[in-house]
Amino acid sequence: MTKLAFERPIIQRINAGLPSKYGLPRHIEPLSHIEGVSIRELLSRYGSPLFILSESTIRRTYRDAHRAFSTRYPNVQFAWSYKTNYLNAVCRTFHQEGSWAEVVSGFEYDKAIANGVPPEYILFNGPDKTRDDLQKAIKNQSFIHIDHFDELYEIIALTKELNQKARVAIRVNMDTGIYPQWDRFGFNYENGEAWDALNRIMASTQLELVGLHTHIGTYMMSTEAYKTAAAKLAALAVGLERKHKHHIRYIDIGGGFASRNTLRGAYYPGTDTAPSFDDFAEAITSALMSSELKPETLPMLILETGRALIDDAGYLTGTVLANKRLADGRRATIIDAGVNLLFTSFWYDHDIRPVEATSEQTEDTTIYGPLCMNIDVIRGSILFPLLKKGDHFVIKRVGAYNNTQWLQFITLRPKVVMIDTQGQVHVVRKEEKLETINAQEVVPVHLDKIEW
Amino acid sequence: MKAQQLNEEIMKIKKNLAISDTGFVFDPSTGDSYTLNPVGLELIQLIKSGQDLPAITTHITGKYDVDAIAFERYYLDFIATLRQMHLIDDNA
After folding, report:
1. What is the CATH topology of the domain spanning A55-310?
2. Which of A312, A373, A323, A318 shows the shortest CA–CA distance to A346?
3. Which end of chain B is more exposed for a tag (fewer CB within 10 A), N or C?
4. Model ipTM over 0.95
5. Residue of A7, A16, A325 with shortest CB distance to B77
6. Does domain A33-52+312-434 have CATH number 2.60.40.10?
7. What digits encode the pLDDT tens for the residues B8-32?
């Protein structure tokens, strides 16, 4: 006789007078397969925990974003934001779709070159470009987005040394009506600093001004702010045409589009509140089209959005290690993936689900990672099904920033696999081992011997 | 010996609790209400019927896909939760 599935016994106090603002508690649906591939089988084959990427989702999301902009504006180009996820398999998928590369360090620049990106399709952003980085970018004719005057003058000096022109843009920061205003990167629009930089560039015979760039914030929920940003960059471009008879080749509106993750403390879930690509595209392109930019010299529109393009394609799955009760009687569930792997759990109430089918029963649960550190909390409070030791979980929308900001802390980082468009599974990053970490260390000879 | 001690504790569950067949629990001494999941309800009913831990374990492991060691862990946790909710009458 087949035995019934065992669910751990629970009793919960009924709190009358405190109904959920969303009505009846929502059952958390299990997620057993990704792109038709069993998560349990992936865990059994590749180990737990495990990052899973869906190539189909990357391509589908990119095409949706590209369609939203290219149906509204004649000349659109995406540049993949390397810092959002620079696993080579991810970058190359975006490059195959037509994305250029947007990098913010020499390391990322070299990674893009190693991924086969032509150097003239690399946008080099960020406040930290070394002299060697700048030399390389000038020689390669990459687009250098200047962050500050010290960098501007260093580039002018280098172009003289190299006797080669540099292709440059400036990053502009501005008031778009959002708080906090990002003013630490680039030149300010309102106080005239951006114009000073543009005039200095136009006065140089060694610099070719190719574009204007801004990046107004991160996880932006307001499309109006992008409208303001696009209008201000268009005004600068029009000013350049009037004063210097110079047409820029592109306006780079940056990234920062919100993904569908839910910010911690948010009233409504991100799936309901995040603007669509069409919403962002409508705001940005309508501002450009209604500006004084001449139709015959409309600059290319570059988008560097990272988070909204990759978040949905990433999953983190793993295993329940233990259940316990906290001092106030609440349930605590410990899983084998912590903030070392899921850096974004500091920002989001991540969508975590059981892999196996569960009953309708839920318990107010705190979900902890495995680290022996108090900060290792994946969800502070969630009505979660009654998972037992050995059961599996999967966390959705982890594609952005986790594979770049994760920490080798206390334990080792696991494998990352990608499910291709045919349903085949590929390891795209191997798991770390003790040797991986120790290979970087050098022990002084006098510490060689230890006597016990 | 351990099982006997546990069973003695179990027998102290409040006798005036109203427990429905659907898992709704009412404590008339405090006015608080509770819900049990099906396994929790089954355990409460077995305890109230006077069964000791070995008998309960035999019943549950015969019916559900769980071994005796794993069940004891969840059983002890359940009893501790009942105590935290003051549903065990320590003065009985």
Report:
1. TIM Barrel (3.20.20)
2. A373
3. N
4. no
5. A325
6. no
7. 445 567 888 899 999 999 999 888 9
